[in-house]
Amino acid sequence: MRKFKKQWAYHLMLLPGIAAIFIFSYIPLYGLIIAFQKYNPALGFASKWVGFDNFRHIFNQPNFVRTIWNTLYIAFFKILGGIIVPVFFSLLLNEIRHTRIKRSFQTLIYLPHFLSWVILAGVISDILSVNGIINQFISVLGFKPIPFLSTPRLFPWAMIVTDIWKGFGFGTVVYLAAITGIDPELYEAAIVDGGTRFQQTLYITLPLLAPTIMLMSILSLGSVMNAGFDQIFNMYAPIVYETGDIIDTYVYRLGIEKAQFSMGATVGMFKSLVSCILVSLSYFMADRFAGYRVF
Amino acid sequence: MLKRTISIVLTFCLLFMLLLTSCAKTPEAVTPAEPEPEAPEVSEPAKDTEDEPEPDDEVVDWWEPYPEPVTITIFNAMATDAIYPDGDDIEHNIWTREYKERFNIDVVTEWVSDDYATKLNLAISSKSLADMFHVDNAQFAQLKEAGALYDITDVYEDYVSDGMRSLMESDPDVFETAKTDGRLFGTPHLHYGYMSMPNYVWLRKDWMEEGQYEPPETIEELEAIMKDFMAKHGGYGMAIDQTLRYLLYMTPCFGAYHDIWVDGDDGTIQYSSIQPEMKTALETFAQWYKDGILDSEFASKDYNAMIEDVVNGKVGAQPFLNWWGYAVGPDIIRNISDKAYFEPYALPSADGKKVMHPVPFPNSAYSVVNKDCKHPEALIKLLNFKYYIANESVALGDKTVEEVTTYTGNNLDHITRPFYFQNPLDEFNQYVEVQEGLRLGDSYKFNSPTAQLKYNCALDFLERGDPDGIGYVLQVGADRCSYAVGKSDVEEDNFIRSKLWGETPEIVLEYGSTLKDLLVEGFTKIIVGAEPIDYFETIVENWKAAGGDEATAAVNAAYK
User: Fold this and answer.
1) Which of B19, B26, B236 to probe the A interface (max A CBs under 10 A)?
2) Any domain includes B223
3) In angstroms, what separates the C-alpha of A188 from chain B's closest C-alpha?
4) Which of A242, A238, A233, A237 is nearest to A63 (CA)?
5) B317 has which bridge partners?
6) CB atoms A40 and B7 under 8 Å
7) CB contact at 8 A, B76 and B135
8) Which DSSP string do the residues of B33-48 spell out, in sequence order?
9) Cβ burial, residue B267 (10 Å; 0-12/13-18/19+)
10) A151 lies within 8 A of chain B by CB
């Protein structure tokens, strides 16, 4: 209590943020009830109560389970790659002495982050098509062209790789910033001890980068049920539904197209529940194995 | 550590409680509100209307202007095809001025949207509805269930003009869907008529002339033509896209129909896409894919990519609707040459039987009145007025064709929602008139302003080579235009109407497009050879298990 008296000004400063979260994140939770209703927008929340019918309807769909699997599969590798690639790149960039070259690389790899998937989908479809630049290269090497976007086996990987390509610039910038914050004295000491640059990276940069990596991983785990609707929606086709249809695209076709709001809410709630469990799990795991905590 | 764990646990508890309380509250929230929407609401507004017009029941004149200005608020959908005279827009135009002058009605547009259905859903859920607006089938059902619509049975009977009535009730099945328990809750927008229902296989004109082929009568002849095209011009045979929408336009050749409901052998209603005829069609398509007639990459091509190939001259055949000329014509002429356009041919038969065209239930929109509206009869008055302008004013000698064009030309007849309908006879009649015009030249006097417009636009291409006129030429303005080819289908009624003729049962709506998607996915696998043809049986089983059986039962319950 005494502590509070001393810090009341800070708590006051927290208030607008808490209010915003309460209004925009907690109050709308009430809307979750439409997952248990046969929602009719004209009746609003007074629509007919149907209990778990919507959940039953969705889980009875034979193709729903595969969309969960696809979502987790694609999201997992996106997250994994989204950690490894930027860390690797930031370590490499960090070794570049020439500031201007370093900066221009940084900017160049950051650029795709700002492009919309709607536009990129068109570009990537062209690049990956049978007559695209990649397949022309493959043909020159004497192999048969590969239809990346219409081969079920390859489609998820096309999504994963292009997503990592689009996003890794952002992660790189974050890690570079973290590296800048490392005390230079440590490197000086290492040099005095005769440590090579590789050893410096391995024994100083990486360990000190670990908390940031951990934080970024935990943050990204929140999106483990989001495999990227706008990316996949703009590039998939019936032939790759088997491996490329994720929960969001499936729900779009099941509910949103025909304004079946209850279905959308049902799946949204299911996704949140699963994400909540996975995030808590990873949080406790991070605590257990890396000693990392937010609270 | 312990403290922290506790605090986390507490946070979750709090969260969970919030959830619980909100859920617990809902049954209470439901009960008081429930009787309101479900109870007699429906009949209540009916009483209102009986009071008002009854006294002067016989002398109601729909032309009568209101003594005091009446304001009617509306929602409207963006009409991107309309071209306005200077200073006009969708809210202020010749129509709205006439509403004011003739009827003393101020039509106020609350909003216009290019994503009308979504915006309207928002308006419905926030209960901020205009006096009059148009809705789709699902919204119509929801609003009726909620008792939010005016029962217009009586105002319709009192105010509808004879011409308008004959049009509205020309297809009783359609009109019936606007009713619930015999009461009318909206006016159907109808459809473009049977003339627009058949699909065609479009073949490239200059390549056809070069090879001097006869119009293909059988699938084998069509195949031979496509293979010849490929040998001479490279590329592949037939342009289709990943949704199979266009390829499935070819299934009537095999007596198979996609996505309608038909009579099964056992007397029940069955879904057409899972019938054995579809298997035959798929077998042929799979062979086409193997032979390179179908694009090896179609499975990843969307509509635009498909059209791109056509416009770039990679392909000489394409199954399409009657308006290929508008969709692709101008681009291919600009890109290749004014001889490079495609011409429509009747779908060839695979088995010598007559090709029938599948027709899904054609009405998809209704104009409705808010139950709180003070002047529901305004809807009928303004509908009458639209009918008068389009169909009666010239015949009565009130207006010249040119004058009517200022109302309906440049697609200005598309901006009058919700005072809107399509005339199912228009397309056919206008086609006949344009053909007469082409035969007789300038001496022909047009009855329909729209027909005259189409004639003029067709001449733009025929006489002046304007690529934008090609759409009209290929639909109504040539010996081989789509309506000329399809005319006999209309005259002989070569149509298979879906047994689902009216409101779609709710269960079918709840499956969204997932049931159809399941078929398209399976069909694609068969066509590209990823699965053998007998996989069709598996697809049918999957479809049934995924909800197809449930949907079939619902359709049978509603329409048997």
Assistant:
1) B26
2) yes
3) 36
4) A242
5) B203, B238
6) no
7) no
8) HSHHHHSGGGTHHHHH
9) exposed
10) no
Q: Is B125's CB within 8 Å of A41's CB?
A: yes
Is B480 within the bounds of a domain? Answer: no
CATH of the domain at B314: 3.40.190.10
Q: What is the pLDDT, as a whole number, of residue B419?
A: 92
Helices (H), A147-225: 155-180, 184-192, 197-200, 206-221
Question: Tokens 């607006």, residue?
Answer: B133
**Domain check: are B126 and B230 in the same one?**
no
- What's the first-to-final CA gap in chain A, in angstroms? 20
Let me know if residue B11 belongs to a domain.
no
- Mean pLDDT is lowest, of A20-24, A149-153, B23-27, B484-488, for B23-27
* pLDDT tens column, B459-479: 999 999 899 899 999 999 999
Give ipTM to 2 decimals: 0.77
Q: Residues 173 to 202 of A: which have CB under 8 A from any B CB?
A: none
Beta-carbon separation of B121 and A150 below 8 A = no
d(CA B353, CA A175): 70
In this structure, the answer to whether residues B58 and B179 fall within a common structural domain is yes
Tell me the pLDDT tens digit for each residue of B192-218: 889 999 999 999 999 999 999 999 999
Q: What is the pLDDT of residues A48-91, one digit of tens each?
A: 898 898 888 888 877 888 899 999 999 999 999 999 999 999 99
Mean pLDDT, to the nearest integer, of A120-132?
88
Together in a domain, B140 and B245: no
Burial class of B252 by CB neighbour count within 10 A (0 to 12, 13 to 18, 19+):
buried
- Say whether residue B443 is in contact with chain A using an 8 A CB cutoff: no
Tokens of A261: 């709001």
* Shared-domain flag, residues B52 and B149: yes
Provide the residue range defining the domain that includes B294.
198-360+494-559
B contacts of A129 (beta carbons < 8 Å): 297, 300
Q: Looking at this protein, which amino acid is placed at residue B531?
A: E
CA angle B351, B357, B358 (to 5 degrees): 115
With CA atoms as reference, the chain A residue closest to B242 would be A237
User: Is residue B529 very low, low, confident or very high in pLDDT (cuts 50, 70, 90)?
Assistant: very high
Which residues of chain B neighbour A40 with C-beta distances below 8 Å?
Answer: 142, 145-146
Contact criterion met (CB < 8 Å) for A41 and B121: yes
pLDDT at residue B14, rounded to an integer = 46
What percent of chain B shows pLDDT beyond 90? 58
Same domain, B230 and B149: no
Q: Which residue in B236, B273, B300, B535 has the most chain A C-beta atoms within 10 A of its own C-beta, making it the best mutation to test that interface?
A: B300
Whether the per-residue pLDDT at B15 is higher than 60: the answer is no
Each residue of B64-118: pLDDT tens digit?
899 999 999 999 998 877 888 888 888 999 999 999 999 999 999 999 998 898 8
| Closest to B240 in 3D by CA, of B287, B293, B312 | B293
Kindly report which listed range (A70-84, A149-163, A242-256, B476-490) carries the lowest average pLDDT score.
A242-256
Same domain, B316 and B407: no
pLDDT band at B49 (very low <50, low <70, confident <90, very high): very low
CB atoms B124 and A41 under 8 Å: yes
Q: How far apart are CA B236 and CA B356, in angstroms?
A: 27
From B373, B388, B414, the end of a domain falls on B414
Question: Are residue B316 and residue B211 in the same domain, yes or no?
Answer: yes
In a domain, B484, yes or no: no
Count the domains in chain B: 2
B385-406: per-residue pLDDT in tens?
999 988 888 888 888 888 888 8
Tell whether B69 and B155 lie within a shared domain.
yes
Identity of the residue numbered B113? S
End-to-end CA separation in angstroms for chain B: 68
CB contact under 8 Å between A46 and B37, yes or no, is yes
